[in-house]
Write a structure and sequence with these properties.
single chain, alpha+beta, Alpha-Beta Plaits, 4-stranded antiparallel beta sheet, 2 helices, 4 strands, 32% helix, 28% strand
């Protein structure tokens, strides 16, 4: 059985924004991956970025620098 841990979930209004996040983070070497939006959250495109909670400050600054539009930032036990 997998142990649940606290994760940072970033949601997007569009699939294009989610894919831009994936591409930009991969190029920059930032931790995380695209996942289906957890059922506890509602989001427009159905995709979310999942990363360790410790990466929040770095990701927030990165998203602002890269002008990626997000819908919400959450911390969930996944």
């Amino acid at each position: 059985m997998r142990v649940r841990s606290l994760k940072l979930i970033v949601t997007f209004h569009t699939t294009t924004a989610a894919m831009a996040m994936e591409l930009a983070c991969t190029k920059a070497g930032l931790l995380g991956r695209l996942i289906p939006v957890p059922r506890e959250i509602t989001a427009g495109c159905g995709m979310a970025w999942c990363a360790p909670t410790e990466a929040r400050a770095d990701l927030e600054a990165f998203v602002q620098r890269e002008a990626i539009t997000t819908a919400g930032w959450y911390e969930l036990l996944l």
